[in-house]
Please model this.
Amino acid sequence: MAPLLEVDHLRVRFKTKSAVKALIEKDDDPYIDGVMGVSFAIEPGQTYGLVGESGSGKTTVARAIMGLLPVHSGAIRFHGENLVGLSRDRIKPFRRDIALMFQDPAGSLSPRLKIRSILAEPFRIHDMMPENLSVEVARLLKMVNLSPSMGDLYPHQLSGGQARRVGVARALALSPKLIIADEPTAGLDVSVQGEILNLMAQLQNDMGLSFLIITHNLAVVRHVSDHVAIMYLGRFLEQGPTQTVFHRMRHPYTQALLSAHASPDPDAVHHRISISGEIPGLVSRPRGCEFHTRCPGVQEKCRRQFPDKAGAGKDHRYFCHYPLSVPEN
Amino acid sequence: MAEPVLNIRNLSVNYFTPRGTVQALRCINLQVPPAKVVGLVGESGCGKSTLISAVIRLMAENARVAAGEIRFLGQDMHRLSSRDLQNIRGKDMSMVFQDPMTALNPVFTVGRQMKDIQYRDAVSRKEKLKRASDMLSLVGIPDAVSRLDNYPHHFSGGMRQRITIAMALLVQPKLLIADEPTTALDATLEVQIIRLLKELQTGFQCAILFISHHLNVIAELCDFVGVMYAGELVEKGSVRDIFHRPGHPYTRALLECDPSVIAEPTRFLPTIPGEIPSLIDLPAGCIFHDRCPRAAQVCKNTPPPEVSLAEHHTAACHCLEV
Amino acid sequence: MNWTKQFLFRLYHEPMGFFGMILVTLVILSALFAPFLTTHDHNALDIANRLAGPSAEHWMGTDQLGRDVFSRVVMGSRIAVWVALVTVSMSLGIGLVLGMMAGYGPKWLDAGLLLLFDTLRSFPTIMFALALVTVFGPSLQTVIIVIVATTFPVYGRMVRTQTQALGNQEFIVAEEAMGAGMGRILGIHILPNIIGPLFIVASMDIPVVVTIEAGLSFLGVGVRPPTPSWGSILNDGYAYIRNTPWIIIFGGLPLIVTTLGFTFLGESLRDIFDPKLRRDL
Ligand SMILES: Nc1ncnc2c1ncn2[C@@H]1O[C@H](COP(=O)(O)OP(=O)(O)OP(=O)(O)O)[C@@H](O)[C@H]1O
Ligand SMILES: Nc1ncnc2c1ncn2[C@@H]1O[C@H](COP(=O)(O)OP(=O)(O)O)[C@@H](O)[C@H]1O
Ligand code: SF4
Ligand code: SF4
Ligand SMILES: [Mg+2]
Ligand SMILES: [Mg+2]
Model:
């Protein structure tokens, strides 16, 4: 099957200082790499999970796909058509097919508009007013299990879970093919979190939607995504089918991340792989393998040379000179 | 139990709004023993932050304590003069909040801020800075001495959170209050913070009141756990009682919802159907009855009594198997 | 409307604001119904009765030409309120449009507009007024131009800062992600979020404008005689301050009432809309 979305060596750079300041300080490269050449593909009807610590560049990937940030190099193909470099007018039709759900549920809803008007926005922007707007709004609210009377409220009158649902409803308004969900469960307690994730799974079943889910909650990713990528300092250190990455990981960072995750049991014995130290800043990106400052298995070569991409079976990719051995089974 | 550091008795807090009176907390009884960690869990909006604001007496201006008292080291927090209160806050009691950036002043260096909070102590500037850098090393910040000259934005999110913890501990409090201190962090940093809190708690013998949505963090860090629902403390007990022998139907439902306990990957996760009731028009009977799988007729009319299940373990429910 | 009810509920708990509101209402009523409130024709001369003290006939006495001070003060409130409303709303309008363009538009536009704001703001009002008067002669228009030109940059800068702050918030990015254009984003999503605090600042600016207008008229570079501006009433009274102080007193009183009224109201509005308290509104 042809992938719905294909991201190919995407690179996003941010300027760190003004041109004048860079000239004065004789800095010939006043940039940092927010995203450093990531590639992945999402098939129709599938969910791709993006995991990484805060500041690793997850949101930046999402915003680049939406055309909200300038792309330095690489390609973003949706249904085979490259979106990179398209003008605002040319990209507008694609905004109907790709919808974004934001990290901060209430903060992404315009505070002075009623929910009803917020849900009407996508139709207004794309000049696709349905014949009966209030019926349409009620339909959207019903789809996310909210009562139509919610349409009369303002965003600040909603609870976190309800605001999230409105975000889902708005994303669904124009029947997109792909929804990018940035931290869809951050700040929610476990019961509300389950409701939102179930709602998303339900919609995927009913409408054949694809999802790109961004999160740092590994327990969530394990359940909801078909593929997963582990991101660190703007790179995908390891990516592949969820089961493979969780049970046959090859990258030391993946292992550390997974072992950090405890189960909610006061008597659990933790076998944590200790990784110490801080995530290095993007400005002082380490040479060689970027994880070497914290890697328990670091060797001399890691400090000098960035590892080549290695593969292990179908779709499973990682960057490491000394990958972990796989348990035989 | 030894004389508790913090003793909350029959506390009720209301918010007055034009829509009506929000009964945000009702009859809360909670004790924090010395040098123990007490965790609070519960659905969003159940009143955890309200409880903390009442404890530190920094409430929203439309909030009132309707009943009950809060005793900290034997003193009634809501009867203290504002001077005594200031002496307590930031000395015997200190706080760590969810967002580390708002707790640090962006225009002063970290060293300056760490020095300033020791203004009560009559020691030299040099001594204060030394204490500050020692505390920074203790929370695991490398090159502590030189980093005192850095501004907050020079640190990453995890480091900033550790700095706020360092500042909170610098005054050697008897009680540390932490409202979701790890929500903004990912799993590896969260582990580091938890370890740090645990070590410091044993080292400094300070009690901790801890709020988090992450049940695994609560399980690992806390000695006692309180479960809140819609403004009531529905169950409390030792961490093992709560996680291994939960009594209240809400606690059970909450624990079952945690995706990390479900071994087989599944697309559909368990939830608690229904919604939290309005805190303006409270339902009669048990606050949880419209969502409770075990609700009986009596639950709809009569508020449940608090039942003791084991030592320190109580739950408010009609249908407990004692 | 629900919102109004909550607003009044709040205001009711702010005694100063309530008091301010009463003063403001008085001034505005007097401006609206000035012709019905006056006891005499405000320009009618009565030389025989010049510089008379307060009496049953002339409640605030008469001035050097025998005109009724009370009637002049009442009519003066028209000028004051009119000038204040016109200038403040013009400044607000210009400041809003330019400020939003600077805050949301491209960098070069921002830089250009900032330069304009800062240049205009650096002129001292009085010098600017005197310069304009030498060119165009004293008139009400001059007063308005001077005040607008020196106050809109203040609004412009405020609006720019607020627009920039909002522009980075997720709900604006969400609109961009859906493909909304600049007009839609500024008009529907940014404007309603910045207008409230601006109105508060504007209400606190009204007394300032009233005083500037009075000041310019007092200096003789504003409203021309015989139009009864509070400034010119003060100017008239100033010459006779020793023997007949009531002209200055009664001419100054409305200035004080207006200033206090709008300031109290503005300050409590600010307190009411303080984001910290907004949560339950
Ligand atoms: N200033 C206020 N005025 C009116 N109601 C308020 C106010 N502050 C909080 N509330 C209400 O009180 C209840 C408890 O709120 P609180 O912030 O304590 O919840 P919480 O348990 O900390 O939730 P979360 O997990 O989302 O942080 C909620 O219903 C909330 O809407
Ligand atoms: N507009 C920007 N200018 C400069 N740096 C940015 C910008 N946006 C994001 N960054 C930086 O890029 C990195 C990745 O950010 P982000 O994608 O938001 O991370 P995540 O979503 O994984 O938490 C961070 O270090 C962040 O500070
Ligand atoms: S390349 Fe070296 S430093 Fe990098 S992850 Fe592999 S072993 Fe660790
Ligand atoms: S009292 Fe009844 S409704 Fe309430 S929790 Fe117990 S069983 Fe459920
Ligand atoms: Mg993010
Ligand atoms: Mg809270």
Residues 5-251 of chain A form a domain with the Rossmann fold fold (CATH 3.40.50.300). The pocket of iron/sulfur cluster (ligand 3) is lined by residues A 252, 289, 291-292, 295, 297-299, 302, 307, 320-322 (CB under 6 Å).
